[in-house]
Amino acid sequence: MDLPVMPPLQPMLARSVAAIPPGMQYEAKWDGFRAVVFRDGPEIELGSRSTKPLTRYFPELTRALLDRLPPRCVLDGEIVVARGGRLDFDALLERIHPAASRVALLAGTTPASFVAFDLLALDDDSLLHVPQRDRREALVGTLRGATAPLFTAPATGDLPTARRWFEEFEGAGLDGIVAKPPGLPYLPGERALFKIKHERTADCVVAGLRLHKSGPVVGSLLLGLYDASGTLQHVGVCAAFPMRRRAELMEELAPLRMDDAQGHPWAGWTDPQAQSAARLPGAPGRWTGGKDLSWVPLRPERVCEVAYDHLQGDRFRHTTRFRRWRPDREPAQCTYEQVRETVRYDLGDVLSGGC
């Protein structure tokens, strides 16, 4: 491979801001795997955000990109999997599997797509120094007429349209809005863009904790919500605390600590059969590796308010942010009913505006 922009390359990133800023190019924030595509004739490589290769996990996508991309180019974008007219991040996670036979099976049952939102090189020219507005124009022209599973991300310079997208596109599984300064060159690895994500709050039962890697202080709080049958389901964690606060939390929660999990709603967390029947902490997987999954059970009597981006199925998609204790709330009030479900929006309608 001999391209004007070569792997490994860290993509340009975004930092969080509270509101959509004016005077920008606006795009949807995709909920998938960030990927930079390098294509040089018959050679193609998909590089992850951390620059690790993703190529082997998406054989159907690499074949399609070889068929649809110019002979020599580098694109920045997102690998996504869609089901039922919306993005499905859980299905995308399943695509990362060590067994070649499983990779081949999933390539047929849950095929991936690539949504391109930047053009970094074309033929013998690097476009890293080119302003964002001109790279966007080149991207649209280069991919004009491309067909699924290759898409050009919709973009607009109209702030009211961006605000509407922010509200509507969440129903298709998208994550918010990315705002890009029109005159900005491409800055690999730098947080030079802006992201605006949905944030909501929910009251959750604190039913356990994990210890911090540094010692006997709180590493994360394990959160639960009651489902319609009255079963406490593990829905996620909150973990971003200053070290002093971690020690304070350990003292605050000491009266709730249980000697063991007997009698706890998640007592069967080590039983694979129980794990398959409900959401319990400590479920092993490809992503946990040799990580210590043990946790300290707490009597499920305290409620905290957390901020979250969105729900993925029956769990929080990302780590939540602790807001406050809620002594005025009973644990039984912490149900899935309080979690607002977004109005569905068809992903095809999002992608149809790509060019």
From TrEMBL:
It comes from Streptomyces gamaensis. Residues 216-329 form the DNA ligase ATP-dependent C-terminal domain. It holds the Pfam family DNA_ligase_A_M. One of its GO terms (molecular function) is DNA ligase (ATP) activity. InterPro entries: Adenylation_LigC-like, ATP-dep_DNA_ligase, DNA_ligase_ATP-dep_C, DNA_ligase_ATP-dep_cent, DNA_ligase_ATP-dep_CS, NA-bd_OB-fold, OBF_LigC-like. Its EC number is 6.5.1.1. The keyword Transport does not apply. This is DNA ligase (ATP). It catalyses: ATP + (deoxyribonucleotide)n-3'-hydroxyl + 5'-phospho-(deoxyribonucleotide)m = (deoxyribonucleotide)n+m + AMP + diphosphate.
